Amino acid sequence: MLDPFRHGSQPKTPGRREIDRVLKKVQEGVEVFDSIWNKVYFTENANQKEKFEADLKKEIEKLQRYRDQIKTWIQSSEIKDKKKLVPLMSSLSWMLARLLNEK
Description:
Order of helices and strands: HHH
Low-confidence stretches: 7-11
Shape: elongated
Mean pLDDT: 83
Structural class: mainly alpha
Helix content: over 70%
């Protein structure tokens, strides 16, 4: 049986390990994002709030880069098994859109 994540002659095609690594980074990033989000909205100290907002912005930028990478993989014909990618892409897009609507 052919492995949908197997490297061909094209080095840009991600392997299963790379995809799993990015998926894990996204999950960790979402947890960090949620933690910082709570700190931003539950702190009363203005200096801390500014610091947390800067941290939140950095985390958002990371998540956006991961979202763009996942989007590229979803559009790629080289990746056959997209079961993990599509729901993750949807949830990341929803989370980032929600954030932009709350600002």
